[in-house]
């Protein structure tokens, strides 16, 4: 039997810099605004402020192009254009929050260019119905896009040739006006100003997204995107500047304001202006209709939107379903109105996307991860300046629309954040936070330490946190979003046997921290014994001012662990860390009095315990509890002095608490049981020396008799 020859796989068509980036960018930039609104811009703003508008708009575009180039040359670029670059730099949540508005902007742009085409037809055929033309053109370019990008890319060379001829024809015409100076200064129509005119003009320079959006169809995106984007931006800047000057030289202000197709009147051969306008508007509409579904397809591939939008057809994976959705959105936008209605909407969408691209590049450059090695480098100052320019212009153009855009983007971000995506790529956030933390640590190390700046940095010896939930809850209450927790698990035994467990134990702790939304980091230590583990943790946890200053440990009466427990307490005291020994309540919460009692036995311990009580009460669980400062004196004559002393301290500490002085000669532990036996939380100061043989033995009876939560405290920090 004759063997059949295998059919070679069809290689998808890939495009180079000229066809894939430069040409679509150029055709989109030199489009409907150039032909139908540049004269109107010069008529309102005058040549002087028109050139200022051009410079501001092009500077934002150029800085964004530089930022795009940096990100694109640092990673292997896939489909999705700007969305792909942002999501791989700042994470899926940020990428999705900007990618969805970017997709909408591209879909709206389709309608924008079609409306421009229809408006130009009215100069020749004023009676033609708008809706019929709009939807006829939309369906035509939809069919071309359905066939594939290859046909569109081939057609754009003919379009560019037509556009070049129309521009040559425009500059070949010369009908100078007598008073050129009259067009130098602005003369805004009623309701117009610098920024409203800017909003109408800005869509002219948003074309750089057309080339980037085809990133998945490029042979070498990391080379083509920078070259094609920057060349198109610079060349079109000079073209627009020359057109503005030529318009000011050849048309009166009245004609500039009233004749939207004044370029056709000035041109040597007017019909070429129509040909160039139609070619530019239709090609721009087609480019946008190619870009929008590819952005939606990339969003689908990352599950930002339903994955059914990620489906592709054929060897080039044409996004047919996403294309159909883009068609529907563009159709709705065609019903919205004319160019002047749609243009500001596109401006806001693209400015938000541009600003985020610049932020991404600026943050990446600032973080300076070793893995961030773009072949095209842009200084972070330029990127952040571009971001500032985008957001500043958004606010100036329309503060309410800017606020609405921010709400939408933040809303999308929060929804995506809750999904907790697990991505296969690493974004720049860890590097950004590392850079911030590094700078902060160095500044903290150089700053003068003072007790006023004390913050709770707790080492919590929690073991398996699932079995010590109350201990973790109290630690979280003490931290109160003002400090940091180290949740630690000490594993003792044979190192060789335990090494394989360490990663798994760390993962369990980290998962627990995420689920409980704690301001904490996980620490798992392998040690020969418990004391050795405590000593190791205290010496290696944290860095600089973020080293643990307080150790929170659970009470233990286990005879087998008593020696280890005692020696660990002694080691904590020797290393001069604040000590909190926690004993869990015996009674349910409902049977306890909602008060936090602080038993004052030493001034340093008292200020430490009072600070912790204040932090605890700031959390929702213990909000509204009464803090009582409890003090024991042996004589009635000393009561008033003790009350005054505690009241003065509370005034200085600015903490709302109630002083209570107990006169008694009973043993202190009996007094504590009598007055705080049923209080939910009880702080008791310890008078201990670091060489004490049995540092906590005398408190065993007290712990057994008090029914609420107990904290035995020893302070090495003077917080008062």
Question: For the largest beta sheet, what order do the strands appear in spatially?
Answer: 3-2-1-4-5-10-9-6-7-8
Which percent range fits the helix content? Answer: 55-70%
Please report which band the strand proportion falls in: under 5%, 5-15%, 15-25%, 25-35%, 35-45% or over 45%.
Answer: 5-15%
Number of structurally distinct domains: 3
Unreliable segments (pLDDT under 50, ≥5 consecutive)?
1-11
Tell me, what is the CATH class of the largest domain?
Mainly Alpha
CA gyration radius, whole angstroms: 35 Å
**DSSP, total strands:** 10
Mean pLDDT: 80
Name of the CATH homologous superfamily of the largest domain: Amino acid/polyamine transporter I
CATH topology term of the largest domain: Amino acid/polyamine transporter I
Explain what this protein looks like in three dimensions.
The protein is of the alpha/beta class and about 725 residues long. It has three domains: about 15-420, Amino acid/polyamine transporter I (Up-down Bundle), CATH 1.20.1740; about 455-580, HUPs (Rossmann fold, 3-Layer(aba) Sandwich), CATH 3.40.50.620; about 585-715, HUPs (Rossmann fold, 3-Layer(aba) Sandwich). Helices cover about 60% and strands about 10% of the residues. It has helices spanning about 15-30, 30-35, 40-70, 80-90, 90-120, 130-145, 150-170, 195-200, 210-215, 220-250, 255-260, 260-265, 270-300, 320-335, 340-365, 380-395, 400-420, 430-445, 470-480, 495-515, 530-540, 560-575, 605-615, 640-655, 670-675, 700-705; strands at about 455-460, 485-490, 520-525, 550-555, 580-585, 595-600, 625-635, 660-665, 680-685, 710-715. A ten-stranded mixed sheet has the order 3-2-1-4-5-10-9-6-7-8, with helices on both faces. Helix 5 (about 90-120) packs antiparallel against helix 13 (about 270-300) and helix 21 (about 530-540) packs parallel to helix 22. The termini are far apart. Mean pLDDT is about 80; it is low at about 1-10.
């Amino acid at each position: 039997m004759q063997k059949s020859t295998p059919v070679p796989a069809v290689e998808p068509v890939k495009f180079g810099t000229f066809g894939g980036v430069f040409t679509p960018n150029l055709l989109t930039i030199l489009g409907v605004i150039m032909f139908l609104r540049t004269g109107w811009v010069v008529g309102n703003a005058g040549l002087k402020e028109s050139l200022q508008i051009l410079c501001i708009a092009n500077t934002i575009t150029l800085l964004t192009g530089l930022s795009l180039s940096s990100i694109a040359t640092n990673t292997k670029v896939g489909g999705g254009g700007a969305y792909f670059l942002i999501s791989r730099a700042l994470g899926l949540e940020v990428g999705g929050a900007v990618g969805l508005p970017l997709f909408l902007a591209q879909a709206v742009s389709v309608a924008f260019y079609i409306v421009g085409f229809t408006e130009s037809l009215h100069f020749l055929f004023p009676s033609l119905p708008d809706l019929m033309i709009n939807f006829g053109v939309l369906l035509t370019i939809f069919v071309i896009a359905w066939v594939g990008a290859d046909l569109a890319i081939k057609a754009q060379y003919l379009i560019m040739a037509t556009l070049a001829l129309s521009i040559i024809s425009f500059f070949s015409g010369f009908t100078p006006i007598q008073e050129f100076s009259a067009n130098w200064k602005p003369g805004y129509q009623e309701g117009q100003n610098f920024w409203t005119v800017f909003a109408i003009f800005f869509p002219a320079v948003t074309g750089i997204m057309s080339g980037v959006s085809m990133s998945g169809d490029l042979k070498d995106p990391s080379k083509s995107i920078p070259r094609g984007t920057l060349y198109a931006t610079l060349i079109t800047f000079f073209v627009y500047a020359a057109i503005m000057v030529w318009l000011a030289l050849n048309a009166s202000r009245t004609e500039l304001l009233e004749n939207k197709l004044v370029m056709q009147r000035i041109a040597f051969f007017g019909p070429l202006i129509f040909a160039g306008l139609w070619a530019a508007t239709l090609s721009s509409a087609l480019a946008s209709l190619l870009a929008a579904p590819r952005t939606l397809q990339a969003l689908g591939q990352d599950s930002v939107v339903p994955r059914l939008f990620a489906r592709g057809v054929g060897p080039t994976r044409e996004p047919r379903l996403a294309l159909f959705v883009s068609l529907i959105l563009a159709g709705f936008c065609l019903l919205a109105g004319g160019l002047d209605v749609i243009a500001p909407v596109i401006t806001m969408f693209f400015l938000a996307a541009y600003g985020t691209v610049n932020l991404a590049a600026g943050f990446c450059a600032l973080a300076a991860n070793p893995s961030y090695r773009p072949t095209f480098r842009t200084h972070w100052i330029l990127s952040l300046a571009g971001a500032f320019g985008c957001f500043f212009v958004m606010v100036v153009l329309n503060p309410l629309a800017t606020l609405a855009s921010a709400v939408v983007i933040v809303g999308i971000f929060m929804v995506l954040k809750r999904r907790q995506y697990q991505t296969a790529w690493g974004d720049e956030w860890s590097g950004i936070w590392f850079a911030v933390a590094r700078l902060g640590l160095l500044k903290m190390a150089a700053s003068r330490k003072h007790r006023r700046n004390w913050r709770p940095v707790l080492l919590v010896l929690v073991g398996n946190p699932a079995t010590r939930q109350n201990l973790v809850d109290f630690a979280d209450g003490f931290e109160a979003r003002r400090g940091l927790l180290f949740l630690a698990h000490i594993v003792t035994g044979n190192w060789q046997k335990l090494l394989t467990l360490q990663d798994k134990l760390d993962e369990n702790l980290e998962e627990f921290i995420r689920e409980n939304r704690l301001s904490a980091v996980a620490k798992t230590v392998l040690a020969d014994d418990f004391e050795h583990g405590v000593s190791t943790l205290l010496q290696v946890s944290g860095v600089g001012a973020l080293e643990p200053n307080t150790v929170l440990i659970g009470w233990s009466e286990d005879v087998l662990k008593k020696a280890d427990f005692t020696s660990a307490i002694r080691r904590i005291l020797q290393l001069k860390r604040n000590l909190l020994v926690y004993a869990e309540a015996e009674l349910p919460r409902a049977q306890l009095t909602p008060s936090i009692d602080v038993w004052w036995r030493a001034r340093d311990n008292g200020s430490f315990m009072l600070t912790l009580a204040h932090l605890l009460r700031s959390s929702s669980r213990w909000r509204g509890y009464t803090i009582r400062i409890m003090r024991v004196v042996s004589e009635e004559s000393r009561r008033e002095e003790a009350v005054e002393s505690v009241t003065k301290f509370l005034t200085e500490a600015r903490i709302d608490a109630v002083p209570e002085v107990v006169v008694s000669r009973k043993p202190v532990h009996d007094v504590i049981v009598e007055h705080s036996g049923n209080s939910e939380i009880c702080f008791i100061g310890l008078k201990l020396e670091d060489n004490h043989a049995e540092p906590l033995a005398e408190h065993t009876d007290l712990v057994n008799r008090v029914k609420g939560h107990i904290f035995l405290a020893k302070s090495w920090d003077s917080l008062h």
